Amino acid sequence: MDSDNDNDFCDNVDSGNVSSGDDGDDDFGMEVDLPSSAERQLDADDYQYKVLTTDEIVQHQREIIDDVNLVLKLPTPIMRILLNQFKWDREKLLEKYFDGNIEEFFKDAHVINPFNKAPEAIRQKTTRSQCEECEICFSLLPPDSMTGLECAHRFCLSCWREYLTTKIVAEGLGQTISCAAHGCDILVDDVTVTKLVQDARVRVKYQQLITNSFVECNQLLRWCPSVDCTYAVKVPYAESRRVLCKCGHVFCFACGENWHDPVRCRWLKKWIKKCDDDSETSNWIAANTKECPKCSVTIEKDGGCNHMVCKNQNCKYEFCWVCLSTWEPHGSSWYNCNRYDEDEAKSARDAQEKLRSSLARYLHYYNRYMNHMQSMKFENKLYASVKQKMEEMQQHNMSWIEVQFLKKAVDILCRCRQTLMYTYVFAYYLKKNNQSMIFEDNQKDLESATETLSEYLERDITSENLADIKQKVQDKYRYCEKRCSVLLKHVHEGYDTDWWDYTE
Amino acid sequence: MSSLPRRIIKETQRLMQEPVPGINAIPDENNARYFHVIVTGPNDSPFEGGVFKLELFLPEDYPMSAPKVRFITKIYHPNIDRLGRICLDVLKDKWSPALQIRTILLSIQALLSAPNPDDPLANDVAELWKVNEAEAIRNAREWTQRYAVED
């Protein structure tokens, strides 16, 4: 990819690079910029992203540096610091450079202005021949054992080495290590670091750190989130897109989660948070239990009369489940409960009723979501068993090409399952309206077709009925594929035309 | 423990030879990395007249990492909590190996002169310092009299 193209990409996104923070605002910002689904369809094949190895990322960094330096002609190490300060957004950097005060430009970037010659005094100091004291180790050393950055704070080589190593290894700093002098914010450039640090492991760590910060702050790059994968994906413009890493992992470029069409990043994030935290547990407790009025132990009433005896052996308090006051004046039947306050009890019942129904609603979607997730895990096993079946079939006079339909069927099954799984997240936040009912019909249709396909693949294939089953499987997966795309298209259309109302 | 680095030996020597007014730091006789520190409350501060005991420890990787300093004498200050822990930038992210015990203790003394309730460690103290500075200063004086003045 040549550098001209890169420039075009930057033009498409006006704030090319912002910190890839995790706050929801980012997601929201991205959604505003989403092209309509018609456009999405049109350029679906034009979204040309690239998977980069670590070396290619380093190379890409150099290309950006060289590219900006065609204009600015600054020393490469300084350019790298400047670009990092501007989150690798060359447009912003150039704008600021030509726009404002040059002195301030370098000061803000914590770099000594390379156009200013170092003051005479410092130059003289460096050519002095008598020993200097290192302010860190208090040793008196000849000038050639001392070094410093352009800010002229000089320390001995071994203190510098130790300082940098501490910053890199213990504190995990890369491009943001500043001069060792107190109160000096001038940054140490990468060439100086590699010159001063000899330990290969520390150097490797440093390289990793600066590469990582490059990827993290560059909005057009994202590390593949798969465990132990070292590839990063580079896209022409940042938005919620399905990207496939070289390691085989498929994910959403915008949020890094598994590809989650039709639900949007923002809702998925909310959903995952909801599922992860304990709020549903406490909702269940609120909806289904009361506390003993005396010892506050949590009680679930699973039947029986309203005369409660606390099971806590230290408490054994007898009370009325309805009014929660002591049982004594109630006599033998709770209908005599004279403390029963109609209004209070009603509002308590309503509140509990509300909690119960919202919990039931959540569990409805959650169970279906988890069910598809679970099934997807089994589907991975299915790949293995299908492979075996394909081999069997080839021994039954079928050619290699003739048995490929099985693998394709499992591929489609997995894709449908994944889509279905995320349709439940989408549906959970969706308010009922006519379009949402159409969506639910689509969902139902896809779900039952997917289950049938799954059944065929799980059970029905034996060597006797090959030809017959092949036809059935092919018909079914084509149907699933079609229904899946109909469902997604309908949701996208809804995004573009604002059909969807949300519950939150 | 490995032998004492030259830096610590030299620094201790200089600290003994040229003491800072109002600050006294003496290494423990059994542990050259542990210092018994006394800081007198600065004039024109609510801590005036007080003698504050602190402990200072130089960790293994000193001077690459900052010394650990803690007030032993109770003190009413928005940036010092009940355990005597100090919220001071040069003890944390602004630490530089070119700083020394001497400079750190001077910074702590300066913190006594200029409390910073906007960056609090002791929340209740900082809160009062902001809404009713006069009362907070009165409290600080009282604590100084009660805990930091020897009869």
From TrEMBL, chain A:
Superkingdom in the source lineage: Eukaryota
Q: Which GO terms describe its biological process?
A: protein ubiquitination
Keyword Repeat belongs to the record:
yes
Disordered as annotated region, ranges? 1-32
Which is an annotated Pfam family here?
IBR
Q: What class of enzyme is it?
A: transferase
Protein family according to the UniProt entry: Belongs to the RBR family. Ariadne subfamily.
- Name of protein: RBR-type E3 ubiquitin transferase
Q: What organism does this protein naturally occur in?
A: Drosophila ananassae
Its encoding gene is what?
Dana\GF20323
TrEMBL record, chain B:
Instruction: Extract the SMART domains matched here.
Output: UBCc (SM00212)
Protein origin, superkingdom: Eukaryota
Query: What's in the GO CC field?
Result: nucleus; perinuclear region of cytoplasm; UBC13-MMS2 complex
What sequence ranges are listed for the domain UBC core? 3-149
UniProt entry tagged with the keyword Transferase: yes
Query: Where in this chain does the entry annotate a coiled-coil region?
Result: none
Q: Pfam families recorded for this chain?
A: UQ_con
* InterPro entries named in the record: UBC, UBQ-conjugating_AS, UBQ-conjugating_enzyme/RWD
**What are the GO MF terms of this UniProt record?**
ATP binding; ubiquitin conjugating enzyme activity; ubiquitin conjugating enzyme binding; ubiquitin protein ligase binding
GO BP terms: axon target recognition; flight behavior; grooming behavior; jump response; peptidoglycan recognition protein signaling pathway; photoreceptor cell morphogenesis; positive regulation of JNK cascade; positive regulation of mitotic cell cycle, embryonic
Q: Which residues form the active site?
A: C87
Per UniProt, the keywords (alphabetical) are:
ATP-binding, Nucleotide-binding, Transferase, Ubl conjugation pathway
Database matches in CDD domains: UBCc_UBE2N
UniProt lists the family membership as follows: Belongs to the ubiquitin-conjugating enzyme family.
Q: Please report the name of this protein according to its UniProt entry.
A: Uncharacterized protein, isoform A
Where does this protein come from, organism-wise? Drosophila ananassae (Fruit fly)
Its taxonomic path starts at:
Eukaryota, Metazoa, Ecdysozoa, Arthropoda, Hexapoda
Gene name of the encoded protein = Dana\GF19231
